[in-house]
Amino acid sequence: MRKFIIIPLIFLLSACWHGNDPRPRMVNGSVSTNAGKLCVKAPDASDDEYILYVDVFDYKEQKDIASLDFSANPVKLDEKTCLPSPDIQYQADDKYAYRASTVLQKKQAKKINPHRRTIVATFFIKDVDGDKQAVDVLNR
């Protein structure tokens, strides 16, 4: 009787952990302000990683308020420089989420999954003496 229960259970559980998961890997980016502009940096970058899309989500409005599409001409990801961000007016004391979707071109060419990453930064905008500063919700 145990064989009839254990063997199907093993097959069911083994299907949960396959190594070719196509979902993009999510990583946390660091966020700051630089000369009044939002600056999001990736924790690391591969030499063949390019940015395809950037979105900014406003938690107060519960929708994407800005997006950039680089799919026609992808932008090379560099961990030392700020990622591209839409030029919008952020409101003090509001919460936002920045998402950059990237593609690893060598992995994509070889059909290795996951070949995409999503760099995410969730932040508040604080008004400090008239200067708006981004504060990462993970490092409050």
UniProtKB/TrEMBL annotation:
| Domain DUF7480: residue ranges | 30-126
Q: Which PROSITE patterns match?
A: PROKAR_LIPOPROTEIN
InterPro entries from the UniProt entry: DUF7480, T6SS_periplasmic_put
Q: What is this protein called?
A: DUF7480 domain-containing protein
